[in-house]
Each structure stands twice: as structure tokens, then as C-alpha cells.
Amino acid sequence: MKTVTAGCCQFDVIPGDVDRNMSAVESRLPRFAGAGCNLLVLPEMWSCSFPYPTLPEMAARTPEILRRVEEWAASYGMVLVGSLPEAGDGQIYNTSFVVDATGKVAGKYRKAHLFSLLGEHLHFGRGESPLVCSTIAGSIGVMICYDLRFPELARRLALDGAEILCVSAQWPRERIDHWSALLRARAIENQLFVVACNGSGTENRLQYGGSSSIISPTGTVLAGETPDGDPPLAALDFSEMENFRQRIPCFADRVPKVYGLGA
Fold first, then answer.
1. pTM
2. Strand, helix or coil at 25?
3. Which residue, 16, 123, 182, 215, has most beta carbons within 10 Å?
4. Among all residues, which ones are annotated catalytic?
């Protein structure tokens, strides 16, 4: 079975400053590449965060940003995952792009669960299609921030063959205990790896919580924030996932007709 090295590119996303945010990511890539990283997850809306008055302007730059991300992925030979504002169908979506190490977009996912508490539903279109895509790092399922509170989506991704769940977020510090608990829950109940990158810093008095983590299928925290600031980086051993799924065959033992949630 293969082993993949995954990382989380956590940083303070500066609202509305695309150039500085891109520089922040670009400056970190050599360190991850030097550590043998094959899969790198970025925060939610990592190019600009949530500057709602200028969101159309931010979205207009996403094609340019995506071309740079494709160049980075091909140059460093790593899969890059993270969400950006995407214009389409007369709306703006919070869209996570999966860029394979070939430099090609393997898939994109538009956030389905919009956080009404902070008015996301007033500014973004709602995505309707889950995503699992094949990459050199394995079969990747994608979720964005608030999606994490909905186990139905994670289970759908697992049933569709996801081996790694990549989560991009801007999760607030005041609920960071929920973040940590939900990451482990999604990993354990679906018996897959979770690579979750949260933003940090402050926006409109809202403090983001960081605490990016990499979780094993058994719920073990493989990597997280360290006191010396080293980024979360961990080897994902796929034999561990296969062994755990064989030992505790949750998928084979499911009884879908009892749940009324479909297959």
C-alpha cells in the first residue's frame, strides 16, 4: 500500500489582499516540498477571506490565481487543495479546487452548507454536487468549513470512495473545540484520513482558531500545531486504513433502510 505525506498550509489570511496572501502561500511551498509533501491543504477563501463588498472583484482574480496554483502544483509535484471565490451562473461560489501534481484541476466543489449565522447565504450561491476525485495522492473528498457539521456529506464522500477528506476552513477560535471534535468524528465514523487546514488571524473582530490537524482513520491526531510553529505534516499509511476497515467493517455492516437516508 502507498504512503502519502500530507500538510496543512495554515496562515493569517489578510482580508481583500490577494497579492499578500498568494505570497504567503508561495513562500511556504519550498518548506513543504523539502519535507516530501505530496498533498497540501490551504484554508477556506485563502486568497482574500470574506470582504463581502469587494467579493466580485476578488472573484475576478481567481482564474489568474488558479493558473499560479497549477504552476505551483506541477513545479513541486504536489496536490494542492483550497477554496477560492468563483464567479459563475450570475453568482459567486465558495469553491474548493483540487489541483493535481500534474498541474491540472482534478475537480472542484462548491460549498453546499452556507453559514447563515454570518450571512454567507446572502453573498454566495449554494453548491449542490459533492466531489470525490482521483489524484496522485489518492482518492480525495472535499468539504469546506461549516460542511464539517453535516455527517451526511462526509458519509456520502466515503461511500463514493474517498480515502482522504480534505477540509478547508476559517473556523472561529470560540468554537475551536467543536472543530477538533468534529474532525476526529468524521475520520473515525468514515474510517478515512482527514487533512484539515484552518485559517488564523482576525477579521472584523472575529478571531480564527488555527488548530489545523491531520487525523488518522482511527481518530489519532497525526499532526497539529506545535509550540515552535512547525506546520502540520504527517505520513498517511493507507495500509492502516485498510486494516482498520477490515477489522471493524462498518461499511459492510450498515443497514441503510433503517436510517431512511438512502444508500
1. 0.96
2. helix
3. 215
4. 44, 111, 145
